Amino acid sequence: MQLDNRKKEVLHAIVDDYVSTNEPVGSKSLIERHNFQVSSATLRNDMAELEHLGLIEKPHTSAGRIPSDKGYREYVNSLMTIDELSPREQLEIEKRIDTSVDEVTDLIKNATHTLSETTGFVSLAMSPRLKKSFLKQLKILMIEPGKALVVMVLSAGVVKDKVVRIPNFLSDEQIMKISGAVEKHLTGKPLDEITLVTVESAGKSTDVPEPLLKQVLYEAYAAIKQADELNIYLEGEHRMLSLPDFSSLGRARDLLGTLSDSGMVAGYVNEMENAAKEGGSDDSFMIRIGQEITLEGLDDCSFITATYNLTDSVSGNIGVIGPKRMLYSKVISQIDFVKKKLNKEMQRFT
Amino acid sequence: MQLDNRKKEVLHAIVDDYVSTNEPVGSKSLIERHNFQVSSATLRNDMAELEHLGLIEKPHTSAGRIPSDKGYREYVNSLMTIDELSPREQLEIEKRIDTSVDEVTDLIKNATHTLSETTGFVSLAMSPRLKKSFLKQLKILMIEPGKALVVMVLSAGVVKDKVVRIPNFLSDEQIMKISGAVEKHLTGKPLDEITLVTVESAGKSTDVPEPLLKQVLYEAYAAIKQADELNIYLEGEHRMLSLPDFSSLGRARDLLGTLSDSGMVAGYVNEMENAAKEGGSDDSFMIRIGQEITLEGLDDCSFITATYNLTDSVSGNIGVIGPKRMLYSKVISQIDFVKKKLNKEMQRFT
DNA sequence: TGTTGGCACTCGGAAGGTAAGAGTGCTAAT
DNA sequence: ATTAGCACTCTTACCTTCCGAGTGCCAACA
């Protein structure tokens, strides 16, 4: 995209003005508000050019221009500058995140909540991708005949457990034997390398009769697999209703309808993450604008996520879904700050 | 409320018509749609009377009448008849609730989801009130230096746990001692009878040095208290946006804003439950209509909940928040059916 | 070649005015 | 107690008009 400097400034100004006023911006008001040393007619020529390039568009013939998805994209990629949050703002966020929690999950939820409050948009976080973390402990505890609890401690400092059904007549002792054998064989293995076969071979060394053993091992395997399932935390959906961008009930309904299917959103975030990894983009933010988002009803939204790290190999995402008419630089620095705060606090757990 | 038969029929008809058409109903359309053996002028007189009694009201001078909160209340209390769901509908619900889950919590979530889908409204469920359930097992497991897991098995078939911090230099053995002592003293006690004092005295019999012991016991106590905290599950908030009753963005925003504070909703449900218990109402449904609801933004809603039972003494609530312009009898039978299904499936866990 | 002033043109939105329709309350008659 | 009739009210939809912001283009200019 080869734009001369003034055209860049014009696009920049249009985005800024439109974001702050929510009105299509015309050549005249552009002159009034910014210090362009040229006349409105000149800007009109520039704007016609920008429109030709698909960076801005007009809602109808006699209105000003608004940025197109492509225009926002250009703005985000090359035009905007991101500056740090002011100390005030930083303090505000630090005050909000409650870090006196005992589990990583709570910390993430807190961060998500804070992010939604500070941005005024929908925030979301994915639970850490635990596939790459390894098993530090695994215990099967007898709860009552027919019922046991599989407790797993993972390298990332996370504890997971699951109630499982076991054959009724297994004794406490037998369970302990199995538990010990499984733990011995699996400790140190990353979750994504543990398969049903691995688990079953781990149980071989016990003298528990075959079919019973097999059932317990299967349940243990299921518990392990459940441990690396991804959760998503979404917050502040209702805030979208306060934005003029969603003052049409139809849009709002489509948006919230889609967001209510959290599994679908989680899937999309995962796709984004994978695409970013493959694309080799070392940019720390993933940004999708408007129609770039393939989820239904998010045409007027932008999706911005960052990656937090629980350990070197275990990470997750945290970010925001807002109107595409947003203060990108501000929101990005807010996400960035929350992410950093999260990374720092997470060290306590690992 | 002494109403002659025809007036009752008129109110009944007005509610029915208004619920199904969402239009204020006038004397003429009332005649057309129902088999009143009198003229519209007579109905007009009756309606004037009903309005005088505060049971119906008109949005403006030249419109038909709509039921007031009091009118709905009369309808719900004395006018409507509740009939069972058709076999079709029953089947539909049974098909939807996935009962192949391992934990009570998942069952409740499933039921809530189903209820929202079948009614088309917001559904909600409270987790079981575990105060009255007693401790069957309590184990403190060492995870790593400074960190332990408190696992509790409750009489209601529920397993709860919490990661807690403990002094770094406590040994595995010491923790096991404490765990054993606490379990021995507390097993069989209902949760609401366990206090910090109880827990601390339970630890006396160990030979672990005082300040360390005290910290562990405190954490154990905190874990127990956390176990009986109430959770609320809310589903389908976005469905409200599809209802004509909330086609005004302002109303919709207020409603979803309030619902987003799940703690507040949970508190309200609890209040309702307590009020019902004190009132000695043996009615199995709690119904709040319009302004009867003290939560902000729910003026146009009705709140209907029923009580499910996990055990004799452990119960929770499940229900619906919908527009007050709803098919009460249908919704009530839907909730009733889901509740019964839930009660039945829960027996598996206890 | 890029910039500028000028001007005719377009279109959406606000304002105002009218007509239709549904429903009411009241009165007088049955 | 019930009914027919009628004047009155109020909302809604629809039309017309008008204003202003903004555009594109042209001819003149540096």
Please state how the strands of the largest beta sheet of chain A are arranged side by side.
7-3-10-9-8
Strand residue percentage of chain A: 15-25%
Sum up the overall morphology of chain A in one term: elongated
Helix percent of chain A reads 40-55%
Structural class, from helix and strand content of chain A? alpha+beta
| Number of E-state strands of chain A | 10
Overall mean confidence score, pLDDT of chain A: 94
Could you give a short account of the major beta sheet of chain A?
A: 5 strands, antiparallel
Unreliable spans of chain A are: none
Tally of DSSP helical segments of chain A? 12
> End-to-end distance of chain A, in Å?
45 Å
Order of helices and strands of chain A: HHHEEHHHEEEEHHHEHHEEEH
Tell me about this structure:
2 copies of one chain form a homodimer. Chain A has 350 residues and is α+β, with helices and mostly antiparallel strands. Chain A is 47% helix and 17% strand. The first copy, chain A, is built from 12 helices and 10 strands. In chain A, the strands form 3 sheets. In chain A, strands 7-3-10-9-8 form a 5-stranded antiparallel beta sheet, with helices on both faces. In chain A, β5 (147-154) and β6 form a beta hairpin. In chain A, α1 packs across α3 (40-52) and α2 (27-33) crosses α3. Chains A and B meet through β4, β5, β6 and α10 of A and β4, β5, β6 and α10 of B. The structure holds a DNA duplex (30 and 30 nucleotides).
